[in-house]
Specification:
Lipocalin; mainly beta; 10 strands; 179 residues; ten-stranded antiparallel β-barrel
């Protein structure tokens, strides 16, 4: 390759790299900004009852959608045995971050969340749950080491009972799968 063509090619690469590095982060609704640390990440957690001979894990993926007006969180348990998608957006009528969770198990939830520092608190109403669960409340906390701890409680027959208590860590090669 002639020297002048190599120089042009090298210049193009340098200019492209500078543009990519200087690019602003993707636009995101101001109300969703506290969730930015999760965007583009895939996390994986093992259920406490998971055993080496019968592993149970959950893979979660966070991404901005709808030109930054919403966030989608997709997850699947055991390569698609169960899974769902959550859409989070600002709801001006509720003056809150609202979310809708759709599952492969034919039930759905809707709720709101509050964010204080690295802690997300949620409360959701469950519709059509065959196990009789009518509400879920939870806390998710981004830990200093980058892991995410999720703890929930379920309401059934008017009584709150402990749900899951899991810690997720970043797993870039893990995939959310649906069967």
């Amino acid at each position: 390759m002639p020297r002048s063509l190599r120089w042009i090619a090298l210049s193009f690469v340098v200019i492209s790299l500078r543009s990519a590095l200087a690019a602003d982060p993707p636009a995101l609704d101001a109300h969703l900004e506290p969730l930015r640390p999760f965007l583009g990440k895939t996390l994986k957690g093992s259920f406490p009852e998971s055993k080496p001979d019968k592993p149970m894990c959950d893979v979660v993926r966070w991404e901005a959608i709808l030109n930054g007006k919403a966030i989608r969180v997709m997850h699947s348990v055991n390569d698609g045995a169960y899974g769902g998608e959550t859409i989070i957006r600002w709801d001006a009528d509720q003056n809150a971050l609202a979310f809708y969770y759709f599952t492969t198990a034919d039930f759905m939830t809707s709720g709101t969340m509050t964010i204080e520092g690295t802690r997300i608190t949620t409360h959701e109403t469950v519709k059509n749950n065959a196990q009789g669960i009518t509400a879920v409340r939870g806390t998710s906390e981004l830990l200093p080491d980058g892991k995410l701890r999720v703890k929930t409680e379920y309401e059934k027959d008017g009584q709150w009972t402990p749900g899951r208590d899991m810690t997720y860590e970043e797993a870039p090669d893990a995939e959310v799968k649906f069967k």
